[in-house]
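Consortium newsletter contribution from the modelling node. Members have asked for a concrete example of what our holo predictions look like. Here is one, prepared for the flavin mononucleotide complex that several groups have been discussing at recent meetings.
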Amino acid sequence: MGKLRFVTAGESHGAGILAWISGLPAGLPVDLERVNLELRRRQLGYGRGGRQKIEKDLADVMAGVRHGRTIGAPIAIRLENKEWETKWKQALPVEDFEGSEAARRPLTAPRPGHADLAGSLKFNLHDARYILERASARETAARTAAGAFAKLLLGEFGIEILSHVVAVGHARLERSAAWEEIKAVCANLESPLRCVDAETEARMKAEVDAALRAGNSVGGIFEVVAHGVPAGLGSHAQWDEKLDGRLAQAVMSVQAVKAVEIGAGVENAVSYGSEVQDPIGYDAQRRRFVRPSNHAGGLEGGITNGEDIVVRGYLKPISTLRRALGTADLSTKEAVEAAYERSDVCVVPAGGVAAEAMIALALGDAFLEKFGGDSIEETRRNYLGYQRQIDEF
Ligand SMILES: Cc1cc2nc3c(=O)[nH]c(=O)nc-3n(C[C@H](O)[C@H](O)[C@H](O)COP(=O)(O)O)c2cc1C
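And here is the predicted structure:
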């Protein structure tokens, strides 16, 4: 990332999870309710474990925002981990104290599918606790908070980013979803799996129930849509400027995402060219080039083409299983059962929210790369100047 940068810190059961965001222009209005709504959305979904009932994430903005607006300084956000004080302060102390050795909660039976083994080898630790604490998807809360700020920026320019669930286990939505449908299902926080089709959603719920009964887990597919994106973000000129690649990395980096698809990429690969390209027309009234279809998912040559950006993430089934898998102990090397830590059974809707945040950050970066501006007024002038250029093209 270049113009809009962010990093996170924090362990799953440490004092808190932190996010820093740099590069947002000054003067951007910050509505904390919107930020907290994103955090709330990440905690929803049928098939989540007990943790979401404990954590009620609220963004504690510690820097970079004054009087409801950004000031051009880095933004720092802290999210408290509710169980730190009561359950983990002794087990994960910053400094040793008398008796701290006995208070440890080591994890020596690495769980297949987690970073436990690879991380322990890499960092030369015989306790995978420190690996899993950071690898945990609790970290997506920080990404979601950072992404909410990117959404605030993009929202100033009419760009909205939402997601819905396309598949859970073997239950799959077999049609495309209209933007208005996605908006409606996202507005309904009671929706169990954020699927636009009630019948399909019922089948998805049954998949989660079956997995839960069997001590198993399920994966699935979410689809993120960015609506109102102008043509011309990203570039075809260098490999690392191509926005399709940048969006793919952003989504692939979300825990448990193992494949990313842009537009109808997977289906297109097994179709004829005549079936998958999107013909170009011109709408004189709107003074815009238009497409009757969007198989390309809003990107051609690594550049946005003015259509909705559509990115799918494929999540593997959650690795932690109540019906534990076989593993080898890190110290004794003996065959043991993998450790079980309280776990979700299905996280596809939450994965979608985390991916929305990642898309917002990557798109926000591309947006500021094109329009720049140290104040929101400057960014807006640049944006409007470009819109005039497109109108007069
Ligand atoms: C929102 C979200 C919640 C997750 N919750 C769990 C969980 O409760 N238990 C689990 O085993 N994995 C969970 N995962 C997945 C793991 O964090 C992930 O599989 C693991 O860190 C290994 O990384 P990798 O799958 O990307 O290789 C979750 C993922 C996401 C996106």
